[in-house]
Design brief:
Blueprint (H helix, E strand, L loop, with lengths): L2 H10 L5 E3 L7 H13 L4 E5 L2 H10 L4 E5 L2 H10 L3 E4 L3 H5 L6 H15 L7 E5 L6 H13 L4 E3 L1
Parallel strand pairs: 1-2, 2-3, 3-4, 4-5, 5-6
Length: 157
Amino acid sequence: MRPIDIFKSHLKEKKALKIISGIDNFDINKAKMVVESATIAKASAVDVACSEDIIKMAKNITNLPVFASSVIAQNLVDAVNFGADAIEIGNFDVLYRKGQIFSAKQVLDLTIETLNLLGSKKNDIFISVTIPGHISIDQQISLAQELEKLNIDLIQT
């Protein structure tokens, strides 16, 4: 069974726990501590920044599915090529603190761009998208509906 299949079963059982290292945590030693902690804690998955070194480190030290997060489509495609089990458009909190805000349209456009760049690989990779918490509830629902039409595997809020 692939690691991502275990995550999917945890989702179905409503007991999934994904530990996030950080979309902007490019310090391999700090990321390694998070991956090791997630493994020891028996999390369902770990989420790291889109970095070849960090993704490969994570894949080497854990059997957990490795998500890679970014808000840059090409970085997400690269993460797939580096061995990530899943990609995530999102984990915006740290970016909000830096003044970077995402609209529903920007998230949808980024998702479509990522899917287009993935081409046929989009069928082989688990894709998660975070709904920005600062947009209105109506916009959140509308965005979630659009993402469902694109067959996104996981929509996070």
